[in-house]
Amino acid sequence: MRHLRPLIVGCAAAGLAVSVPGIASAHPKPSPPRTVSTSVGAPFNLEVHGSRVLVADGGAGLVGSVGRNGTISPLVSGVPGASGVATRGAWLAYTSTVSDESTMENFASGVHVRRPGGGTVYADTTAYEAKHNPDAVNSYGPQTEDPCVTDVLGPKYTGALDSHAYSVARNGNSWLLADAGANDLLSVTDSGRISTVAVFPPQPHTVTADQADALGMPGCVAGTTYNFEPVPTDVEVGPGGEIYVTTLPGGPEGPELGARGALWKVNPSTHKITKLADGFAGATNLAIGKHGNVYVAELFGGKISVVNHGRVSTLVNLPGVVSVETAPNGTVYAGTMGQDATTPGSIVEIRGGKICTRHRVR
Asked: Which domains does the chain have, with CATH numbers?
C-alpha cells in the first residue's frame, strides 16, 4: 500500500519530552507575519546564511538568495525537485530529485556539495539506497494475513527501494540528510561518501470501525493495525549536537485518520531515536529556536507550532506553511505554498513570541 505514503512535495519532485521537567510561562504574541518575498513557487526549505535568507524553490527548480526587494537571485539554477539547502561557511549543499509526477516514482536523487571557490561533488542517494536499502528491516502494511483485509489494504511488505533526498543540514564537518523516500537519516561527507545514521520505525495505526466506514472499507478492516511508513521531512542539529527530525506518517492525515506527524530526537553518539512530540498535521519542516524552542511547520494544520519542554503551542497561524527557519537574533522565517493557481508562494518573517521556561529543581 505504498501509494498511501506520497509526500506532499510530490507537486515539485514527486509527520518535547525532555528529561528536565519544566513549566512554560505565558509568552507574548509574535508580530504578524511580514511578507519578505512573493517570488517563490514552492519554498520547501530555507537557510539563514549570515544576513541572507536562502531558499530551495521546488517550483522554480533553483536554490537562491532572497533580496531586500523580494527578488530571488539564483545561486544554482536547473535543479530538478529542489527541496533542501544548507550552508557551512562558504560551503553550500542542496538536494535534487528527478521524478515522474504522474506515478510519484523517483528515478534519481542526491545531495550536491559545492566547495568554496567552485567544484561540486554529487552524493547519489538513489545508488546508496539500491545497494543498502536500510529500511528493509521494517515491516509495513497491515499486520494481519486475513484475506478480507489484504484484499483491500494489500499484504505486508518491507522497505522498498526509493530515495527522495529532501532536507539537508550541516553537522560539524559533514552533512545530514533526511531521505523522505528511504525513510532514514543519512550522513554525507564533503567527498560524497554516504552512511546510515538512523532508520525510523514504522508508524502503526489501528483502524477504528468509524474510520473504516469513513474510508469506505469493509468491516473486517476495523481493528486492523496498519504500519505506515515514516517519511522524514527535515533535519536540524541543536546547540548540544543532538539531531532533530520531523516525519509525516506515510498515509492520510485528513479527518479520516487524524494528525499523525511527529518530531524526533536522534542521539548523535548512540543513534538512538526518541519521539518527542506528535499529533502534527503535516509536519513538513522544523527549526531550532532559543530557550529550548523547536518550531514545527504544519502544512495541513496551516500553522507553526512550538515544542518547548514537552508542551506544544501555536506560534502563529499561517496557511500553506511548508518551511520554517530561525536566525541567530530569534527571527523566524517561513515559506508558504500558494493556495491556488493565482496565489504565489511567499517567504515571511515573524518576530517576537519567545517562550521562557522555569525549571523545577529536584
From this structure: 2-15+37-281 (2.120.10)
